[in-house]
Amino acid sequence: MGINDTPRANRPHIAIFGRRNAGKSSLINAITGQDIALVSEEAGTTADPVYKSMEILPLGPCVLIDTAGIDDAGALGGMRVKKTRTVLDKTDLAILVIDPALGVSNFEKDLLEAFVKQDIPVLAVLNKVDQGNIQKALLEEELGLYLHPVSTVTGAGISELRELIAGNTPSGFENASIVGDILSPGDICILVTPIDSAAPKGRLILPQVQTIRDILDHNAQALVVRETELESALAGLTKPPRLVITDSQAFAAVSSLIDESIPLTSFSILFARYKADLKSMMQGIQVLENLKPGDRVLIAEACTHHRQEDDIGRVKIPNLLQKQAGGALSLDWCSGSSFPEDLEKYKLIIHCGACMLNRKQMLSRIRTAGEKGVALINYGVFLAYMAGILKRTTSVFASESDVGKI
After folding, report:
1. Do 353 and 334 share a structural domain?
2. Is the residue at 22 inside a domain?
3. Are residues 9 and 127 in the same domain?
4. Given this model, what pLDDT does residue 306 score?
5. What is the pLDDT of residues 162-205, one digit of tens each?
6. Rounded to an integer, what distance in angstroms lies between the CA atom of residue 10 and that of residue 65?
7. Could you write out the DSSP letters of every residue in 80-112?
8. How far is CA 252 from the centre of its chain?
9. Residue 376 structural domain
10. pTM (2 decimals)?
């Protein structure tokens, strides 16, 4: 996979915040050397957050997010500010732009408090230094941060800002591993990928593709089969595979075909540790075990796919949930980037594998749910539990899953 093909969810998300007309869009254009953000003298030009997948040297592939002004006014402005605030959930590095003519106000200070609360590193940038008569030291004292001076007109300070972005973006994006950290060179992994009505025509789904690439990047071998070919694939090997990875919906069929000595997991469980927090999800199993008829459960999907007749999120999981509870539950759904604010009304959240979300956003959802006292588990963990093989499918990650407590 080339640099330009890096999925958006795997790139660090760098968001630009500031008041209207502070020069946020101009700054994005200057950083990238392209006119990718609309610039106007009229305040409030940027309405919704604008996402642009880019490569910024020396950082590499990333996502830049242009946001509406945090001081936007009126009913519509309030909606814009609310959307800007939601960007915090997926921000890996924040850039706060200060206009010297506007100074530092409670808008910026409130935003800094939000950065601290959500553990988001921040770079403060003093824009428009070409206009002269800048009281930089006074502004730094009011803000409590060093202000890096730039001019989007002359280009002053932009090259240095790129270096600061690279140096302050949290590390680990280029080294994050889905499964490679438990593999050795030469290991064989069998990937079971059912081709049914839910499978996209002519291609594999993103978690499958990313897992294959991760295996290859760690000098191991990926053998991809359908569940109907698994038995013959196993028979053709001269030694047992290091790991069998399956679609969670095929747990029952796959687990019955492979010996207990062969580690088994699923793509969704792999993504529970890659994009989220497997340990916290395992702790959420206690809530699942105690579900009762009438309890309210949220089923969250990160993408908006075409619904099948036997859709996993709309049909299969609801049926299994109500079987576990012993009666009808009150079920709600959300999809895409939307996520309810009133989570306290739910007993449990069942989340998809989150291949379309970045890790920061998924961890934010887990944290927010936890603050409201709501457990969150994902599809793979749920389906493994319902199949009676949760301990088996997480034992390969024993230190992360507290498997002994299951």
Report:
1. yes
2. yes
3. yes
4. 57
5. 999 999 998 766 557 899 999 999 999 999 998 866 666 778 88
6. 15
7. HHHHHHHGGGG-SEEEEEE-TTT---HHHHHHH
8. 28
9. 277-405
10. 0.84
